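Lecture notes, unit on protein representations.

Consider one protein chain, 881 amino acids long.
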Amino acid sequence: MSDTDLTPLMRQYREIKRGYRDAILFFRVGDFYEMFYEDAEEASRLLSIALTSRDKASANPVPLCGVPYHAATSYIAKLLKAGRTVAICDQVEDPKLAKGLVRREVVRLYTPGTLIDTELLSPAEPNFLAAVATSSRRSAQAAASPAFGLAALDLSTGEFWTMEFHGDRAATILIDELSRLEPKELLYPEEPSPGGAPWVGRLKGLRLCARSPACFDLLEARRVLQQQFGVSSLDGFGCASLTLGIQAAGAALRYLRETQPSSRLEHIRRLQVRRIGQDMHLDCATVQNLELVRPMIGGERRGEMTLLAVLDRTVTAMGSRLMRDWILKPLLSCDAINARLDAVAELKDAFQARAAIRTALRNVQDIGRLGSRLSLGVAGPRELLALKQSIAALPELRRHLSRLSAPLVRDLVRAWDDAGDLHDLIDRAIHPGAPAAWRDGGIFKDGVHPQVDELRKASKEGKNWIAGLEAQERQRTGIDSLKVRYNQVFGYYIEVTKANLSRVPDSYIRKQTLVNAERFTTPELKELEERVIGAESKVKALEQELFERLRAQVARETPRLQAIAAALALIDVLAALAETAALNRYVRPTVDEGETIRIVEGRHPVVERLEIDGGFVPNDTLLDLESNRLLILTGPNMAGKSTYLRQVALIVLMAQMGSFVPATEAKIGVVDRIFTRVGASDNLAGGQSTFMVEMIETANILNSATPRSLILLDEIGRGTSTYDGLSIAWAVAEYIHDRRHLGARTLFATHYHEMTQLANQREGVRNYRVDVQERDGDVLFLRKIVAGGADRSYGLHVAKLAGLPSPVIDRAREVLAQLEQPTATVCGESTELHARSEAEPLPRPHPLIEEVRQMDLFSMTPLDALNRLADLQRRIEQQAN
């Protein structure tokens, strides 16, 4: 159908829709948002609402569905969850004043990274829009040394920062940062050639938005940023030299302006610069393996099985978001760590002050996001009341905080802002029972504005007269069933049943005929109706104007509100950590620049909360850069090796974020990074097996760690054949231990008992095992870490506990007994096996394995060494055949 065959309304729709082809267009028609054509068909399916049609009588009826405009948010949420974008097209002029077709414009584009609606946001998580700019150079040097700029902007709070990554590992570090950030939307420059942005293929679970390279233009980015901040240079933000960072920041800000064309974005007032090394860098595998903020396996209550769930006893949304940020960004500075620990320690001991602070904080709403909504011009009267309520708690909080002496708290008190002027401004104006939307009227208190009072009086008097009209007319006409009613379509009317029509006075003017009644009006009623409705209309319009002025006046104080929100979030997190420490028997760690990690009776903060038979068994840990550099941990499955590895990492991380730790004593020499290779997983979509994923993660550790790192390795080499895996595990352990390569503090859990022999060859290696007790053929897992290596895996006992049929277990015992003999016959074939001996540094199942010891592995990169070992395994298999 051509546009000339359409009605003016549908031509208007078609014209607007052309600019938003990838979005579902909510087109305002009266009290509904309507959708047409393919939008209607898709929305009706996704929203489970009826699909009808417009112009049914025509040869080509238009598919149609709609939702009430006042309830649109819940429908928008469903469409966003389904991965769609929603464009809101509103009426931008009063239909009563319009000459012809009402003018309509798209006033907002809803995308996951640009949300500000309370109903659509998670209070405990930030909502970042991220942008990545890449180097535009195409030289061989640029390809060998890539560079990236990353910017992140949270529209709901105004937080805006940028950073850059350079060097061979720039792409990996970028992906790690995005993993921690978890942006709801990621903008990146679209590459003209296939495979032009290989790093994008490594991202998982993010909503990607390819943009034209022109959106990342440097000159335009500088102009947009300077215009936003009202400056002539970006030097004052410390980012003038961050070319790629500026490009990314400019692209993010331009995207916001495109999607929020009616918003001024005045709450975005500065651009922070972040640099690598400001906090501990955690890679994707570590964040996932330690289950810091998300569980590795979903399911009911699995969200409680994270470190965040254990530590987050905050009572405000702002505090909850900051707690998450602290967990994902442990500190590296001992001074900063100990400043936090001082505050937590004082609050832990000061029970009454802590309880009073937390009680007062419960009255505080999300000031950070309230300020942003005020600045964006979308906050309603009740949100101003929520802000007033929150500000009312500030003087009390200051009084309680003033009694504390920790430097971090004293700094807060010195910069404290009670914001009493804002509280009084809102309190004088807004009625305590104000509605959620300004359109409903009744926003302001009596006495705030004389004209509002006058119009309200006129409306009230008219309504009172109309209320008495029913009794008056019943008496005058003798019609006892006569009623005076009102609706939005017909206004005020007098309703008389048909049985009483003969009694209707001649002065009544017929207004509407019903099946069983007639509706009338009178000149007096019509005059009063116009007076009442006119007064109501005028007072609503006046209240709207006054409210917008008040909202703008408060919005000018957004920087103050952002500072108040940051202070409240900080004290909330400190008090929450103190509360957790008191309830969970945590102790203050000693954190210094030393090389020792010593934990006495350490516990896993998450696992200890579970109902475990016999309770959680605490364990000690001693790591340093001398004689306790590499701890090899052996023992059976299900005995707790992985739990022990994770608990050490979590205790170190908790200490460096400024938290007390689950132990009776802890001394933590600051680590620059924590690396974990724990658990088995694959990447089938990327064509990577479990073993390949294991080797990639191991290679990342070997190439990225430093002597100040903490490394946790669990079952390296188990994804391949026994001798292949043992060779790799042995070589990796030596590489990590030896100072000419890494010399890092490491916990190395393994089922290869031969690995314990490494302690005889390396000075810094110590053997530990998870103790077990055998009784009447059964095994009791004691979960206690003791000195020495294990010589059995007890795999058959675990298999029995798992429920394998008895014949399988019995046959396995027979095979195991034969395999453990120096010369064994299995399945009719003779197999020569070497008995293990403590005197032998390595088992010799085949002469070629001696090449492992003769290889100059230390002159190779880790990946070359692994490839060489794999080639050796192939040769062994060929000779065996």
